[in-house]
Amino acid sequence: MKKIVVIGAGFAGLSASGILKRIKKGAELTIIDKNKQSNFLPLLPDVFGRRVSSDFLLWPLERLKEEGVNFINEEVLTLNLGNKEVSTINNRISYDYLLLACGSETNFYGNDMIKQRALKLDDAGDAKSIIFALENKSFDSCLIAGGGYTGIEISCGLRAYFDSRRVDKKIFIVERAPAILGPLPSWMRDYVLENLKRLNIEVFTATFIDKIEGENIRLSSGVTFENALLIWAAGVKTPDFIQNLNIEKTPQGRIKVDEYLRFAQGCFAAGDAANFSYKDNFLRMAVQFAITEGELAADNIHRSIKGSPLKKYRPLDLGYVIPMANNRSCGRVMGIEVKGLLATFLHYSMCICRSLGLKNKLGLLIALLKGGG
Hints:
Blueprint: E1 2-7, H1 11-20, E2 27-32, E3 37-39, H2 46-49, E4 58-60, H3 63-66, E5 70-72, E6 76-80, E7 85-88, E8 92-94, E9 97-100, E10 105-106, H4 112-117, H5 124-136, E11 141-145, H6 149-164, E12 170-174, H7 186-198, E13 201-204, E14 209-213, E15 216-219, E16 224-226, E17 228-232, E18 236-237, H8 240-243, E19 255-256, E20 262-264, E21 267-269, E22 274-275, E23 277-278, E24 281-282, H9 287-306, E25 319-322, E26 329-333, E27 336-340, H10 341-354, H11 358-370
């Protein structure tokens, strides 16, 4: 009996489980995740931006047991590749084949001061915490650290939240790099910047948070914010147990995999945990790649068990959209530039298609229609 262990039950882990659980003979599948429910991450900013209930973003992982999967709801503490053993607080799980699909989490870069002071947006619980802080109204302005995808979506969601309640609050984005959305084409950066100005969201580039003293936040430029709500979206990293592995990784902790998504004998990685090189570049963190990598890694585990040749991963990039809460979204889909309501429609259509369960799909559809999505 071959033991297969999948760490992580996000897009990559669940897509892999859909294939691995079909192996009826000679294999035992265990999935480990610290969360009781799988979170639909792309719509987290819409919990406050478009009043989408967080309930529609959750799928109970206990249901995996009904499908014959051994689900362990614990955080992985260590991974011993030599002994082929995964350790949690209560269990030591041995494996013959391993898939790391544990995603990523907010990176505070070891700054405990910011970690204690800032809100983040890693799951539905974090979205609820942001709503609680917004409803409390004990702040004068909102400061979002990070001008990437998440920072842009959060800032636009906050503006939609305030506008719907006729609340006048200033919103600022602080980005350490010379420009927001650094890797993206200049037309897209310009389009987003113009829309941020339209939404009265001010952007500070080549700037970082220098010091926090009580309720005051000082930027490297010398500008000080008094009594500001701080939301941290300035980067992500893989979980600590991956950071501690003595294997080749990126600064974010993404594991460098080969053309089969393998990083060691019998060990594979998919989604945000994997760093895959394709056409002289590395794939960005994206749902579409997490799903297809999870499926390919699972297929290669099955092939390994059967003694069949492994398949090479050949990604298909469908594109990307930066959703903005006033529907002035933009992106590139199937090689075509898209802007405005069409881009918004494509983003939410894909999100509904990829959400788990009929109840969630219908709930999201109704909520987004009511919210103008």
